[in-house]
Write a structure and sequence with these properties.
about 150 residues, TATA-Binding Protein, DUF3576 domain-containing protein, DUF3576
Length: about 150
Amino acid sequence: MTMTANATRNTRKLIVRGIVIGTMAVLATGCGKKDRPKADLAASQVTTIGVNAYLWRASLDALSFMPLVQTDSNGGVIVTDWYANPKNPGERMKVTVSIVDQDLRADALRVAASRQTLTGGQWVDAPVQAVTVQKLEDIILTKARDLRRAAISG
């Protein structure tokens, strides 16, 4: 009986997962020491997605008021649709968030924004203030840190 390439690949994945889980179990036991190290369930790379889970959840939370066009948790990309604040209907924003690493670090997050204003019945591109993007990055990073702290303490 011959195995297909996919079956062989799946078998290899299962073997590798078994080895990784076994290694983690041995490390978690502390190799017989009295003081066993506690597993840090809130470590920056604990994730079932392709990017840092805290940054991902914080980004989705921070952008929850905007309609989403695309989300890719493996690639770490969130793209919103145009959003106009009801208090200022003559201006709209579109945001793209990219998470480029599995670590919870400031340089693992990239935010880009586009802004348009309504001029003469047409939407015209307008500059986005750098402070706007920086403030959104700060909000996301703060939320991600809070999520991590909550996971550690509870």
